[in-house]
What does this fold into?
Amino acid sequence: MTPELAITKITDALLPDDTLRALFLSGSHGTGTADDWSDLDFVLVTPEGPTDRIAAAWRAALKGVGEVVLWRDRIVRPALINAVMADGLRVDLIVLKPEQATGQAQDALRPLFDRDALHAGMKRAAPPAPPSPGRARYMFDEFLRILGLLPLVVGRSEWLNGVTGVFHLRNLLVELMIEETAVPHRGGALHLNRLITAEQKAALAALPIPAPDKEALVAAHLAYAAEFLPRARACAERWGVEWPERFEAATWALLADTLGISRPAG
It folds into this structure.
């Protein structure tokens, strides 16, 4: 079934219920950036919010699209329902009350039905915003925390755990790069190609995926630190977030004392 046919069937199934005040497409289909692999993201507006009755009505509407083989009902977030259909189509729903819907942006939603003209009262576009200071500081601290576990990895010969640590560093670097570019309408986790620049992609591609041995892991940790820390410092200054100077200094001192690793210049 094509996405557009699925959208039509779901809309037609919900439309007779007058308690459902609006249904919007969000995500890539809502912003016009969808491709053949995009999932379907919906925002449903109803005065009762994400109740069991609304969840049951949503599941009934999906039956017209096919067999539901995964159903996550308000587990990840209180207003979010995830479903995967037997043909692989992924369908996500967020349920909002009308007063919550006013915080949405017009350019992020495509109305399917809108009984109360909610879409017209929304702001036209949501400007890209940096991460919250708390989230930014968490990224910086978490990178340094994982970097500081390298002596433990070496001391215990935990080479497999060391590879996992490098992937945590890589994920933090990717998150930082996405925040650097501040692309609006980011979409899901599998949209990285359009979220980062050619320079960022080249930097990521050049970084090592280490083998589970001491030499490779030490080299990889240092390579990711050399890429992440200057970018993060620049972002901290731009975002007005305090840099964890003392934590960084203590981390490099630990690496020097235990592994003989010198803090890079600059």
In short: The longest strand covers residues 90-96. Strands lie at 22-26, 40-45, 68-73, 80-85, 90-96, 110-114.
